[in-house]
Write a structure and sequence with these properties.
Elements (H helix, E strand, L loop, with lengths): L11 H5 L5 H9 L4 E5 L13 E5 L6 H6 L12 H16 L3 H10 L9 H4 L2 H10 L6 E3 L6 E2 L3 E8 L2 H9 L9 H11 L16 H16 L2 H5 L11 H12 L3 E8 L2 H9 L34 E3 L6 E3 L5 E6 L5 H8 L3 H20 L2 E2 L8 E4 L2 E4 L6 E2 L19 E3 L3 H12 L5 H11 L5 E3 L27 H17 L17 H5 L3 H11 L3 H10 L10 H4 L3 H4 L33 E4 L21 E4 L12 H6 L4 H8 L17 E4 L11 H26 L5 H5 L7 E5 L25 E3 L4 H22 L16
Antiparallel strand pairs: 1-2, 3-5, 4-5, 5-6, 6-9, 7-8, 10-13, 11-12, 14-15, 16-17, 18-19, 19-20
Helix pairs in contact: 2-4, 4-5, 4-7, 8-9, 8-12, 9-10, 15-18, 18-21
Length: 818
């Protein structure tokens, strides 16, 4: 005899449900669910090796689940809530079948139908339907969006979601406790939070309404909705009696939309979670992305894994797998922004005016944060978000009050100032650094992971307090560090802001970085050993906007005490649009704002002081080209002081230039040829040749053929560069083809004899050397751009010296002294 239907095919549950206990209802429903769970088995799998369980429809069920949800078919005892029965069913199936609870909920709620093919949610009572939908959401209110997270790091995951419970929570929080109605003050408080969720696609230059306008708008809205006759019909006191929850919900749906989009940040460490909350308590939501009310809104209570992210998963990037958030138990909710500053640069290509406005916006945010005594600690384009027409700072899990030590398990080295790097020059220092970071790991795997993050790169490390984010925010005195820690100060953010300004103005990173904005090992020495002179050289080379260059000189100072404050930066002519005049630096230096001078179009036949080029950028910089002066090209490269390395007065300048340090250091270190008399300071001191070995001069055989082709192509390329410059076009394409896409080789010329500096392969070498020639790759566009005029002049001088010409091979002859 069937335990599901009677003799006439009617469900037994219809007759006995009013008399059953909760356990009895669960037992009967469990025997006739619309789903079954299977384990995948293939021919090569033994019976005791079950595959991954999967949920499939049950073809033999009799629709007890749909009938139970339909109030017109089945009623239960008044002491039993159908919500409690449904929740017990979800738990039972998930436990017995060993599958995630959310999989069971989704199968029973979204894919189940009644015997007529109608979804169960359409036949269920509205209250039970709302409960069932809530079971699909994280914390019964957040509908996490499908697809990969918007951000994943070692310590946090950010996902987009729809908040189905915010309006109800705000109403409950701001309603009058005695009368249970929402009055004007509470209505304005609710709107001040909800207005942060307004989506915007407007331009960055658009301005949000001021506070007075918003107050007026909200007051009028309250008067309109307070007189809504729907509240009178519902007996809720309309017409001066405040707003009911139903009326307020209808107002929110019409004003802010049915779907309120938010971002959920899941964090691994409690300390980061507490910083995200506490650092926002004294800052204004106009400048820092605020937190929204959520299930963990009040106090510093940490949401436990079992009530938050224990069962939450989301799609991972690219591989179709799911990412469990069980390791990220601490959650905060924030307004979902429009785009980060990084995305704005890549996808919107803002002009000079927009860049200036955005940088001013970021400067105002930093000035406010510093005024509150807080250092952000991670100012970069990815941590600036556009929300409701404005840019705001996000990601405060690295923020600390002024004077505390910089404590993070990871950091963005590409934006750190020079004082944050230290060189470990002994094995003892290396061992101390290793012990400080790896002893706390607990096991070999953890120690290896920790060492990968903090191992020295070119013997340089960052001055971080070696504590994990999960430990209290106190200096770690249990280990001896081989270096002194530096307390956090606004000067750290000021340097990072300078890096951001440099990126937006030039489209280049101050120091080459990887995709995570961390500095590769080969550039660590550059970042750690900046000098003011080297920075000035780089700014002169790449920033043609006079005001922007002067602002950068004040932001990017090696001495932290000499960096301009953010409050003073807001008064700089770059932001105030004042004419640059002779105003001394804050530190009393003799530098001043420069007056903008008329620049003549450069030509290749004349060696100019400046060459305007579009330099190709490494990594993602190609997409970030931002023109600092339109329609002028965006990069100004100083040639004269940089490509005459035999001048003793320029030796230190060339050595410290970060882009050319590899080439120029090798040139400068060859002392025998730096002390020779110089016939003329403007004389070319090097020549670029297409071959790595020079066997004889004049060239013979294959070298002669290469020489003939090279000279002809070199001159045609120079003409192409000149034409591009005259038209204001980028010159990176012709520069790459300077030697048909192959490397060139830089030979140093003796300023007295005009001979090539001896190399280990020249037949007439008096002192063999492995220094020259230096390979110049086609990708070294900045060097090629700066050196092209002098390379052309050097080539012409060298040809005249030895009567070389691009003639046929058979006419070339070996000189008598070869």
């Amino acid at each position: 005899m069937s335990t599901i239907v009677n003799q006439v095919g009617k469900l037994l549950l219809e007759y006995v449900a009013p008399y059953l206990t909760l356990d009895g209802l669960v037992l009967m429903l469990a025997n006739d669910l619309p789903i079954i769970v299977l384990n995948n088995l293939d021919a090569n799998t033994s019976s005791d090796q079950l595959g991954e369980p999967r949920v499939v429809p049950n073809p033999d069920h009799r629709y007890s689940w749909a009938a139970f949800l339909d109030p017109s078919i089945i009623t239960v005892n008044d002491a039993i809530a159908k919500e409690a029965v449904a929740s017990a069913i979800f738990d039972l199936v998930a436990k017995d079948m060993r599958i995630p609870r959310e999989v069971v909920v989704r199968a029973l709620v979204t894919t189940s139908t009644d015997q007529h093919g109608r979804p169960v949610l359409s036949v269920a009572d509205p209250f039970i339907a709302a409960f069932l939908m809530g079971q699909l959401y994280f914390a019964n209110r957040y509908e996490i969006a499908d697809g990969p997270p918007v951000h994943v790091s070692a310590t946090s995951v950010v996902v987009l979601a729809i908040d189905h419970g915010l309006c109800s929570q705000l109403y409950d929080e701001y309603k009058d406790e005695d009368e249970g109605m929402l009055y004007l003050d509470g209505f304005i408080a609710c709107n001040s939070i909800l207005c942060q969720l307004l989506a915007t696609t407007s331009l960055t230059r658009s301005r949000p309404p001021n506070d007075d306008d918003m107050m007026t708008t909200w007051t009028k809205a309250f008067e309109l909705w307070d007189s809504d006759p729907a509240d009178d019909d519902a007996g809720s006191g309309g017409g001066g009696g405040g707003l009911s929850s139903h009326t307020f919900r209808r107002y929110c749906d019409q004003t802010y939309g049915v779907q309120l989009h938010v971002a959920l940040k899941f964090m691994k460490h409690e300390d980061s979670y507490r910083r995200e909350i506490s650092r926002r308590r004294h800052v204004h939501a106009k400048y820092i992305l605020p937190l929204l009310p959520s299930f963990a809104l009040h106090d510093d209570d940490v949401a436990s894994p079992t009530t938050t992210s224990h069962h939450v998963t989301c799609s991972s990037v690219g591989n179709g797998q799911t990412l469990s958030l069980a390791d990220y138990p601490h959650v905060v909710a924030m307004p979902a922004g429009d785009r980060t500053l990084h995305d704005i640069l890549v996808k919107e290509r803002p002009g000079r005016g927009d860049i200036q406005a955005m940088l001013l916006n970021v400067a105002q945010c930093l000035a406010h944060l510093h005024g509150c005594g807080i250092v952000h600690g991670d100012v970069k384009a990815l941590n600036v978000l556009r929300v409701h027409h404005q840019l705001k700072l996000i990601d405060l899990d690295a923020a600390n009050p002024v004077g505390e030590f910089f404590q993070r398990s990871t950091c963005t080295s590409g934006i750190l100032p020079p004082e944050m790097f230290v060189h470990l020059d002994t094995t003892t220092a290396m061992r101390q650094h290793y012990d400080a970071y790896c002893r706390q790991a607990g096991d070999a795997t953890g120690a290896a992971a920790m060492w990968r993050q903090h191992r020295p790169r070119s013997a340089y490390v960052v001055r971080l307090d070696p504590v994990t984010d999960s430990q209290p925010s106190q200096p770690n005195n249990s280990v001896e560090l081989p270096y002194a820690l530096i307390p956090m100060s606004p000067s750290m953010d000021i340097w990072a802001f300078g890096c951001l300004v440099y990126l937006l103005v030039t489209g280049l990173h101050l120091v080459p970085t990887d995709i995570h904005l961390n500095i590769p090992a080969e550039y660590m020495a550059v970042a750690a050993t900046w000098t003011d002179l080297a920075l000035d050289v780089k700014l002169e080379a790449n920033v043609d906007d006079i005001a922007a260059r002067d602002l950068l000189r004040r932001l990017l100072r090696v001495d932290p005490a000499h960096r301009i404050s953010m409050a003073a930066a807001l008064e700089h002519p770059y932001f105030t649009a004042q004419t640059c005049d002779s105003v001394s630096l804050d530190d009393g230096g003799d530098e001043a704002f420069c007056t903008i001078e008329e620049e003549k179009p450069p030509t290749v036949s004349h060696i100019p002081d400046k060459i305007h080029v579009h330099a190709a950028c490494d990594y993602d910089d190609i997409a970030l080209k931002c023109r600092a002066r339109e329609p002028s090209p965006s990069l100004v490269v100083e040639t004269s002081p940089l490509v005459t390395p035999t001048q003793a007065t320029n030796a230190e300048q060339c050595r410290s230039h970060p882009t050319l340090s590899t080439h120029n250091t090798m040139l400068l270190d060859h002392d025998p040829h730096l002390t020779r008399p110089q016939p003329d300071e403007s004389s070319p001191s090097f020549v670029l040749l297409p071959m790595s070995r020079v066997h004889a001069i004049p060239f013979v055989g294959n070298d002669a053929a290469i020489w003939t082709s090279f000279v002809s192509h070199f001159h045609s390329t120079c003409h192409a560069v000149a034409a591009a410059m005259a038209a204001g076009l980028p010159i990176d394409a012709p520069l790459k083809q300077l030697n048909h896409g192959h490397s060139l080789y830089l030979y140093l010329l003796d300023d007295v004899t005009g001979d090539l500096v001896p190399t280990e392969t020249t037949s007439n070498s008096a002192a063999p050397s492995a220094v020259y020639p230096i390979e110049i790759r086609p990708t070294d566009l900045e060097f090629l751009a700066m050196s092209l005029p002098l390379a052309l002049a050097g080539l012409a001088t060298w040809r005249r010296q030895f009567q070389l010409s691009p003639r046929p091979v058979e006419q070339a002859a070996v000189p008598t002294n070869a």
